[in-house]
Amino acid sequence: MQLNPDERPGLPIAKFESMLKTDDVYFFDSEDFEDIIHHYLNNGKVSLAKKAIKIGLEQHPDSIELKLLDIEVLVFENKLEQAEQLLDTLQLLDNSNEEIYVQRANIFSKKDNHEGAVELLKKALDLSNDSFDIYSLLGMEYLFLDDYEMAKQSFQQCVSFDAQDYSSLYNVVYCFEFLEDYEGAIHYLNDYLERNPYCEVAWHQLGKLYFVKKMYKEALSAFDFAIISDDRFIGAYFEKGKVLEKLGKYNEAIENYETTISIDDPTSHAYLRIGKCHEKLNNDDLAKYYFYHTVHEDPLLDKGWLAITNFYYRKEDYAKALYYINKAINIDEENPVYWKKCAKINTVLKKYDEADFAYKQSVDLGNYELDTWTSWANVMVLNKDLDSASQILSQGLEFYPEKAELKYKLAGVHVLTNNLTKAKNYLYEALKTDAKKVTILKEEFPQLYNMEWIKNIISEF
Fold first, then answer.
1. pLDDT tens-digit series, residues 356-373
2. CA-to-CA dists, residue 102 to 119, 136, 424, angstroms
3. Long-range contacts of 245-250, Cβ-Cβ distance < 8 Å, separation of 24 or more
4. Whose CA is closest to 243, among 267, 276, 207?
5. CA–CA separation, 125 vs 406, rounded Å?
6. Which is it for the CA torsion 374, 379, 382, 383, positive or negative?
7. What dihedral angle (degrees, nearest 10) is formed by the CA atoms of 382, 388, 393, 395?
């Protein structure tokens, strides 16, 4: 099992590195080599770890622990066949060594045989006196298998061994969230905090759960306790700001976001939230100032460009809105949200060809939302391209076969193209699906709604 390199002094590492520089050969006991190798592996210095393994095995050729570290590196480098051969040899010498089963489990995991890895790790648990790391590996294997209940239980074991194992604590909460057991997660964290009342990580996670449950008062208290536990905990200030926004306390929210900037380098997310708060407070100049800072800090943050675009869109300054969304597209032309926003702006500006192109780009990039199809079809009707409108609505119907909106629109478009048979069929289908939404026909095709034959069909429902 992996040792803690801090448990032994750093002298062997310094001595080993001195040996490498001078080409002298120093003797180390096997435990020193283990510490040296773990130190290099923990710091990502694999080549130095391999040198230490080679020299260590030359000095201690019968050391099973050093051979296991050699196998660990082979597994890391995906030399799985070689690792398995060495494990076969080791297992003949020591069949009760849990690390042999751990390394076999790692190989199984690399081969995507996660069920097999779980069984091997369970065997390792039976043999181990120190099962902390094994439970952590077991939890990860269960995550690969989408078994979040068992993963949760495994990570809970890790936390019970070491209350400061925050990685496992995060994983426990993640499993609760995936299982949508928010109440269970809240209960677990409150129980944990009874034993560890000054754990800022747990308070932070608890606050986020309360936020999801819209328990804003409790969330504020949790984030306050996180800040009391660590007054430089940026995440707690940021999340507290989000809660205050929900409560309409925008000035207080701004103070918390500004605190995150004063503690560490400013982030685009903090600038964005401050800008949103100023926009709510009708501080337009400050809102624009922070939105500009957002995209300057991170030009790839789509929320920043959308914030500027939406700011001008709401002000009905469509020319500027179009300017900024085009800038965003120039930076990331594969963002379907940008193209959809571009289409909406061009529609308002009556640039129907440009809107058509933008909607097509958005769909080609994977935006299949219902209102994308309906809005795109509306543009084609306005552009008097009824055949394209019909094709778009039919394509949308493939994604949403039970949506009456698409069927009413298709009925209206087919009336306009004098394809009355198809119009009647789609009208019947729409009325069967949702008769209440017949108002769509009245709102979007008022000239057709009063036609006698249409009235007769509607009266049947």
1. 999 999 999 999 999 999
2. 10, 11, 67
3. 245/273, 245/276, 245/277, 245/280, 246/211, 246/214, 246/216, 247/216, 248/280, 250/277, 250/278, 250/280, 250/281
4. 207
5. 58
6. negative
7. -150
Cβ atoms within 10 A of the Cβ of 302, count?
Answer: 16
> Is a pLDDT exceeding 80 seen at residue 5?
no
Which two tokens mark 320? 């500027």
For residue 448 the two structure tokens come to 């057709």
Separation CA 28–CA 55 (nearest Å): 10
Q: What is the DSSP string of 109-136?
A: HHTT-HHHHHHHHHHHHHH-S--HHHHH
Asked if the model's pLDDT at residue 108 lies above 80, the reply is yes
Q: Is the dihedral of CA 394, 396, 401, 407 positive or negative?
A: negative
**Residue 162 CB coordination number (10 Å):** 12
Around 85, how many Cα atoms within 13 Å sit in the side-chain half-sphere? Answer: 5
The CA distance from 311 to 296, in Å, is 17
**In sequence order, what DSSP letters do the residues of 164-204 get, joined into one string?**
T-HHHHHHHHHHHHHTT-HHHHHHHHHHHHHH-TT-HHHHH
Residue 257 phi, psi (nearest 5): -65, -40
Nearest to 314 by CA among 295, 341, 289: 341
List, as one string, the DSSP characters of 17-76.
HHHHHHT------HHHHHHHHHHHHHTT-HHHHHHHHHHHHHH-TT-HHHHHHHHHHHHH
The rounded distance, in Å, linking the Cα atoms of 461 and 444 is 20
Phi, psi of 427 (to 5 degrees): -70, -45
Query: pLDDT tens, 414-440?
Result: 999 988 899 899 989 989 999 889 888
Rounded CA separation 143/160 (Å) = 19
| Distance (Å, whole) CA 183 – CA 190 | 11
Retrieve residue 73's tokens.
């590196």
Is 225 strand, coil or helix?
helix
- Rounded to two decimals, the pTM is 0.78
- Which carries the bigger pLDDT value, residue 337 or residue 30? 337
Distance of alpha carbon 184 from alpha carbon 70, whole angstroms: 42
Give 214-269 pLDDT, tens digit per residue.
Answer: 999 999 999 999 999 999 999 999 999 999 999 999 999 999 999 999 999 889 99
* Residue 10: band (very low, low, confident or very high) from pLDDT cuts 50, 70, 90: low
Locate tokens 């026909």: which residue?
441
